[in-house]
Each structure stands twice: as structure tokens, then as C-alpha cells.
Amino acid sequence: MSFHIVLFFSFVDGSPLNWLFVDMNSYFASVEQELRPELRGLPVGVVPVMADSTCCIAASYEAKAFGVTTGTRVSAAREMCPGIVLVESRPVEYIEMHGKIRAAVDSVLPVHRVDSIDEMSCRLTGRQTEHGSAVALGHAVKDAIRKQAGEYLKCSVGIAPNRFLAKVASDMQKPDGFVVIKKEELPERLYPLSLTDFPGIGRRMYARLRANGISTVEELCGLTENRMGRIWESVVGKRWHALLRGDDIPEPETARKSVSHSHVLPPAQRTDEGVRAVFVNLIHKAAFRLRRLGCLTRKMTVGIDYFGEHRGWRKGISIDMKNDTQTMIEAFTGVWNERPRGRKPLRVSVAFIDLVPAGESTLPLLPAERKRDDVAAALDSINDKFGTNSIYYGSMHAAPDAAPLRISFTSIPDVIKPTKSLRTPGGKK
Q1: Which one of 141, 276, 310, 322 is least enclosed by Cβ atoms within 10 Å?
Q2: 336-343: long-range contacts (C-beta < 8 A, 24 or more apart)?
Q3: Contact predicate 242/235, CB 8 Å
Q4: 44, 87 in Cβ contact below 8 A?
């Protein structure tokens, strides 16, 4: 009797590609062009309000060709691009489109993490990490977004050994890019980039690198692990040393440090009554977010910026690990009279800092404290059901619709239905 042994070999093209990163291109402007076909092919600038004194918060690629970018003042944008079409931001539409994009990506690969309103990352596993499979999945993601979310929405896909480099890859080719970085190509593949092309190297870090004689990516990649640690003055530098070489190392967990809201005052609200009402509105919104996040705060800061050369006013207020709106409003009321007088207010802001998870504190013992928590929960329940600001504290009645929904880079708010049913025809509650 004879035996035959058959060996099967699986040849993998290089080291594994562990991450796929999706970056939507000119997101807010592209959503507007997708929803309004008449804007397609035109230079579009998205603005928070229709006023020449504000700035563009997004620009289409047609507008970018004229030099218009995020942060360009509207007056300057009109000069740079006389044919620019300005549209007012519609956050609800952008959040809803984000949901469609995420569902499209999920239909191909599970979304591991939503990095921002226009970015998300997926972990590849098993055979997916092979070059051919990873590339096929990347094209499938782009195709799914086009078919399920919108044909005019473009995205850049980056694939790399770790999530950091996958994000870098997604920025290397825009719009509608597709870049793969293999571990075998590192670090030389990164040399043509600028230092500021890396997420995490902003103005201050760039200045620190230059002060240490580092002006190119090649010089950065040539640093030893210990030297990087000294430059960053923490273990973060050593993480960078590993990431730039393609190592897929665990990411440290980050805890939320603050919840904040700010609002530029329209002319009608630049009065004491208007400013105070906007403050209460911001506290109402921020406290709602705090409870949604399951956090308590030890400190609240309130501030006013003024027109002209006047210095802004800032006040820190100690809070004994609370998150109910009434406590915050009372704390604010206690310092309201300390504000400067005779100045023209421009912007107000509220921030809750020094946050702790609600589960790490003891439950309130006094009935009055428990009652405040119960009232806050009831307010949240009603506003969830009937729409934001369906019910609110009377002290914000002069500005219930101030500080409308905004989208930060890393926090995507829930879409809450427009207020309905609790308003009477006369507008009262």
C-alpha cells in the first residue's frame, strides 16, 4: 500500500494589510451637490449663516480650484471665485447622509470606528488582509457608497498595515483616491509627504520638530525610538516610531475630557437679556449631551468674547459632580453679575470640564438632589419624543432657537425631530 502526501501552499503577497480607512471628499459641499443636482459642477461654499462676515465651513472641489478652503471668509471667497454659490449649512442632512454612508460601508465590512462625520475605519481580518482581497474590498466599499448613498459622493480609501497609516493613505490622493501602503515599502513610501500631512502634527508639534532639526519626513523616520520619545516628551513618540514602520499596535483608550458649546450672537441678541438667554440655552444643550454621554462634571466655565480690543471674560465655577440642568443654571446665575459692562458681546461659550463617568459617583442622598435628576430625565425624555426644545427652562425663552445644531469634527450629534405638538399657534408653550 502506498501513501501520497499532497501539500497545499498559500502564498500571501507581503505582510498583512490590517486596516481600511474611508474619507469622504469635501463632505458638506458634496452632500449639497448630491441633494441639489443644480449645484453639480459649480463652485459651492457652505456657510453657517448667510453673511459676508462669516467663513466657509466647506468648499466643493470646483471652489477649491480657486483657492477657497475651509475657513475662507465669505467676502474673500467672493473675490477669489466670483461665481461661487453660497449655501447655508444643513446639519441634519449631513448627519442623515452619514448614516446612509455608514450603512453602505457596513454592507461590505463592519465599521470598526467612526472617526468623524466624514471618516470611518474598518479592521481587516483573515484572508481580507491579503493584498488582492483588501483591494477588492476597498473598491466594493466605494461602489456601495455610490449606489446606496449617492452617485455624486466621492471618497478616498486608504489601506495599510495600521489604522494611522491607512488614514495617511486616504489623504494622499484626492478626490476619489485609492492608495495602498505596504509594510515592505516603509518608511521610504512616506518620504515625499510633508510633516504636516500626518494627523497629530499641527502647528505646535511642527515647531517643536523644527526646533529639533527635523524638517522632512525622511529625517523624522530616521530618528531612533528614544529620540522620538524625548522630542514628544512622552511614550507617544515611541508609538510614532512603531506606527511609521507599519506596526499594528493597540491604540490607547481615550476618555472624553470636556463637553462644550459656543454661539456667535446675531445682532438682535447682543443685549443683556439676549446674552443671558443664549447662555441658558447653551447650558441646556451641553447638560443634555453630558447626560447622554453618562458623565458628570466637576467644573463649568462660561465666557464672553467682545468686539474690538476688549479682552474676553472667562469664569470657572466648581460643580460637585452633577449633570442636571437646574444646578448648572443656578451656578451660572451666581456669577452672571461679575461680567464686564459697557462692551459689545460677540460670542458666548459654555464648557463642562473635568468629567467623570456617572457610575463612579455615589447616588444623591438628599431628596431635593434626586428630584433634580428626575426632572432632568423627564426633560430629556420629552425632548427626545417631541423634538429638541419642546420643553425648556423659562430663562432661555428669549432665545430658544439660538445656537442651532452644529457638527464638530469628532462628535456626531443625534438627529432630533423638529419641535412639534407642544407649541401653540401663537408660539407659546
Answers
A1: 310
A2: 336/276, 336/279, 339/304, 339/313, 340/304, 340/306, 340/310, 340/313, 343/306, 343/307, 343/308, 343/310
A3: no
A4: yes
3-state SS string for 136-204: HHHHHHHHHHHHHCCCCCCEEEEEECCHHHHHHHHHCCCCCCEEECCHHHCCHHHCCCCHHHCCCCCHH
CA 68 to chain centre: 21
Q: In the numeric block, which cell numbers belong to residue 128?
A: 481580507
If we measure between CA atoms, which residue out of 177, 82, 91, 43 comes closest to residue 411?
A: 91
- Residue pair 293/320 in contact by the 8 Å Cβ criterion: no
Between CA 262 and CA 399 the distance in angstroms is 14
Is the distance from CB of 93 to CB of 386 less than 8 angstroms?
Answer: no
Q: In the numeric block, which cell numbers belong to residue 289?
A: 449631551
Note whether 383 and 331 are within 8 A (CB): no
What residue type is assigned to position 309 of the chain?
A: E
Which tens digits make up the pLDDT trace of 337-377?
A: 999 999 999 999 999 998 888 765 444 445 555 566 666 66
Give pLDDT tens digits for 268-324. 889 999 999 999 999 988 888 888 888 889 999 999 999 887 889 999 999 888 888
Task: Cell 458681546: give the residue.
Answer: 345
119 catalytic? Reply is: yes
pTM (2 decimals)? 0.69
Check 32, 34, 62, 119 and give the catalytic one: 119
In three-state secondary structure terms, 353 is: strand
Q: Among candidates 225, 218, 220, which has minimal Cα distance to 208?
A: 220
